[in-house]
Amino acid sequence: MDEIDRMILVHLTEDARQPLATLGALVGLSPSAVNERIRRLGERGAIRRIMADTAPEALGLPVAAFIWVALAAAADEGAFRVAMADHPAITACHHVTGAWAYLLQIRAADLAGVEDFLSSLKQDGWLAGSQTVLALSSVVEPPFRFRGPQ
């Protein structure tokens, strides 16, 4: 990956809908050369997907919560990972070091939605323990991937 590839990634991250001609003018290449570089970046895994950055508040999901999770001894960790990857409320799931096994980030309509999510983790037998932290505001936030009704 060279400096032009990095510049293309910066501009795509800011606005992936930019025409190839605009990107080309920004990085000093023709539209077809930019298109080829984008294709190669995708093949190499530098670009995983191009998606819309939706606004969670506008979708009725203003509450961001971070949940530290300790898995129950009987929990199937592989099944837990699959369930978390498929859950529409989860915006991030990280396997972490330290006292906790996972850090989840969720979006919910209200505090009752956070409580419902935690209750479902308990009912499904995943939790040995958890700690929840609510975000008061966000200074920097990754793109929100809307995955349907919660």
**What's the CATH H-level homologous superfamily of the largest domain?**
Lrp/AsnC effector binding domain/regulation of amino acid metabolism (RAM) domain
Order of SSEs, N→C? HHHEHEEHE
Number of discrete helical segments: 5
Whole-number tally of structural domains:
2
Ends distance: 39 Å
Widest sheet: strand ordering = 2-3-1-4
Strand percentage: 15-25%
Give average pLDDT, whole number: 94
Helix content: 25-40%
Q: Largest sheet, described in full?
A: 4 strands, antiparallel
**At CATH's second level, what is the architecture of the largest domain?**
2-Layer Sandwich
What's the CATH C level of the largest domain?
A: Alpha Beta
What structural class is derived from the secondary structure elements?
alpha+beta
Overall 3D form: elongated
DSSP E strands, number: 4
* Low-confidence runs of at least 5 consecutive residues: none
Any idea what the radius of gyration is?
19 Å
Any idea of the CATH topology of the largest domain?
Alpha-Beta Plaits
